[in-house]
Each structure stands twice: as C-alpha cells, then as structure tokens.
Design a protein that fits this description.
single chain; 5 strands; globular
C-alpha cells in the first residue's frame, strides 16, 4: 500500500493483497481515492469492486470513498486523470472507474 497526497482526497494504491476495508478504517475522516493495482484474481477483483459502495455508505456523509481499477495496460497519466477527477468531484462517493479492459 502506497499513500499519495492529493489536493482534495488522498490517493492510496492497494496491492492485490490489501483489504480495502482495513485501509479505509485506517484513515478515518479522510476522503479517499483507492487505486487497486492490477494482479487480483477474478473473485478477489469482484469482491473489491463490490466493497466500494458499502464502504462509502458507512463513511458518508463526512467522508467520500471512491476507487480506480486500472488494467495492466493503463498508463500512469490515465490513472492520475481518474484519481484527479474523483478527488475533485465533491458530490461523488461510492463510485469506481475501471480503466482499460
């Protein structure tokens, strides 16, 4: 897990072994954009994607939780653009952006 500072929300890169619920619990009161790095198997990917909405509901209204799921082919610029959008979108929570295929 690697944390990155952001103007409006904190970007946190999650490895395939990181549990998003533990990461969110470790950052109370902070808007987060979780970047799920490629490498999860299909089941782990589906579970991670399904977790974003409920995590956002639990954290709302004080905190926003959003996620980016890049493919192995996603460029760093594309990932950063998705993170910047979710970070700046103050009315958006519980959303995930899937990049690539």
């Amino acid at each position: 897990m690697i944390a990155h500072g952001a103007a409006r929300a904190r970007r946190i890169d999650l490895s395939p072994l990181d549990d998003p619920s533990i990461v969110v619990a470790a950052h109370p009161g902070i808007d987060l954009v979780l970047v799920f790095l490629p490498g999860r198997d299909r089941l782990a990917q589906a579970i991670a994607e399904a977790a974003i909405g409920p995590l956002a509901v639990i954290a709302a209204p004080a905190v926003r939780i959003n996620a980016v799921f890049p493919s192995a082919e996603s460029s760093p610029a594309a990932i950063e653009a998705a993170v910047a959008y979710l970070s700046a979108a103050h009315a958006v929570t519980g959303q995930l952006l899937v990049l690539g295929s």
